[in-house]
Design goal:
Layout: H1 11-27, H2 30-37, H3 53-61, H4 80-93, H5 99-112, H6 115-125, E1 130-133, E2 148-150, E3 156-164, E4 171-178, E5 181-188, E6 194-198, E7 208-216, E8 220-223, H7 228-264, E9 266-267, E10 270-271, H8 276-305, H9 310-335, H10 347-359, H11 364-382
Parallel strand pairs: 1-4
Antiparallel strand pairs: 2-3, 3-7, 4-5, 5-8, 6-7, 9-10
Helix pairs in contact: 1-4, 4-7, 4-8, 5-6, 5-7, 7-8, 7-9, 7-10, 8-9, 9-10, 9-11
Domain Acyl-CoA dehydrogenase/oxidase N-terminal: 12-127
Protein name: Acyl-CoA/acyl-ACP dehydrogenase
Domain Acyl-CoA dehydrogenase/oxidase C-terminal: 243-376
């Protein structure tokens, strides 16, 4: 299939991206974000779940939970290219919200392709927030790995680990194993037997938890035993692309904020941006971000138009975005000098979000290893 011009990023995608940028500039400025999530610098502070629920309602009014839902399920049916543009703006503003988790869950539900999954998509389009509970204690999100079991009566027991924004969402897509294989189940966070145990994490713009399930009987089957792996494999390229888009947006904020500081901070009677020791790293940041952004939109385009290449493109995008996130985070702190290491300097919020995203679903080294297994293995098979 021929790829469309500009990755298929059309006028509707641009309108969505521009609308998101304007809204978040007005309602999630860095000063307001810092006041919201960084009230305490104590290392031993309790794990918090702080977010602007009024801003979330504005997102719902704009239909952002419906953008990735297929039209047949009551959504807008926009391509992953448009979703990447939206998520890039979420990363640029480091927004605390369950939207990224809900978008990822949308792609998993769509891949299930069952009546129950289609009902879930209708509810997501109407504003239901959902997160994925698909990771085991070792941190593996491989489709076959889970610490949750489902018995013959359909009751779930076990623990799902590293669940993103668990205290902000209303529902969870839980991966569970039975003797017949791995399935996916929708669980209400308020259901009997569900306990959310907050994790202490570095990122102040999100919460994370492990979810304990004890004989949970009200779960809906989204993908039956044996079908869960297929759905997760189909959705994984979208998940990687979404997280990579968030990192690209955050890295762009780091670049622009650091460049502005270099233009205004004066040392030796000149703005520090005059000096090559500052100028060259800024250019390096820009080049890395542009390369990662191109790969993100290429991966989104592949998911929309060339599914057979989607995994490879998505792993390339996640690898490049993770590397860019790590480098831009370090440079943003270093080039701010002494102030860059302080709690009062806003850049630590983006630094921490980037470190969290970097390892989520695998860092650059992990993605390159998976690419090597896939591509070199294929070469060996045909040699």
């Amino acid at each position: 299939m021929t790829r469309p011009h500009d990755f298929g990023f059309d006028d509707a995608a641009q309108i969505l991206k521009d609308t998101a940028r304007r809204l978040l500039q007005d309602h999630c400025a860095p000063e307001a974000l810092h006041r919201l999530v960084a009230t305490s610098s104590e290392p031993a502070r309790a794990s918090e779940c702080v977010w602007d629920e009024a801003l979330w309602r504005r997102m719902l009014d704009l239909g952002w939970t419906a953008v990735a839902v297929p039209e047949r399920a009551g959504g807008f049916g926009m391509g992953l290219v448009a979703i990447a543009g939206l998520v890039e703006e979420l990363g640029r503003a480091a927004v605390p919200s369950p939207l990224v988790a809900t978008l990822c869950s949308t792609y998993v539900a769509a891949a299930c392709d069952t009546d129950a999954a289609r009902q879930l998509l209708l509810r997501i389009a109407a504003g239901l927030s959902v997160s994925l509970a698909i990771t085991d204690r070792r941190g593996s999100w491989a489709p076959e790995d889970t610490d949750v079991a489902v018995d013959e009566a359909g009751a779930l027991s076990g623990t799902a680990w590293f669940v993103q924004d668990a205290r902000k969402v209303a529902g969870l897509i839980v991966k569970a194993r039975s003797p017949r294989g791995v399935g996916l189940y929708l669980v209400d966070v308020d259901a009997a037997g569900v306990t959310i145990v907050p994790d202490a994490i570095l990122d102040l713009t999100r919460d994370q938890a492990h979810v304990e399930l004890r004989d949970v009987r009200d779960a809906q089957v989204l993908a039956g035993p044996g079908d869960g792996v297929r759905a997760l494999v189909a959705a994984e390229p979208a998940l990687l692309t979404i997280v990579a888009a968030d990192m690209v947006g955050a890295a762009e904020w780091q670049l622009q904020t650091t460049a502005e500081y270099a233009r205004t901070r004066v040392q030796f009677e000149r703005p520090i941006g005059f000096f090559q020791a500052v100028k060259h790293p800024l250019v390096d940041m820009m080049v890395q971000i542009d390369a990662a952004r191109s790969l993100v939109y290429d991966a989104a385009c592949a998911f929309d138009h060339e599914p057979e290449t989607a995994e490879v493109c998505a792993r390339m995008a996640k690898a490049a975005a993770s590397d860019a996130a790590a480098d831009c985070s370090g440079r943003s702190v270093q080039l701010h000098g002494g102030i860059g290491f302080t709690w009062e300097c806003f850049i630590h919020l983006w630094f921490k979000r980037q470190k969290h995203n970097e390892v989520l679903y695998g860092d650059g080294a992990h993605q390159r290893a998976r690419l090597a297994d896939r591509l070199l293995g294929r070469i060996g098979e045909t040699a």
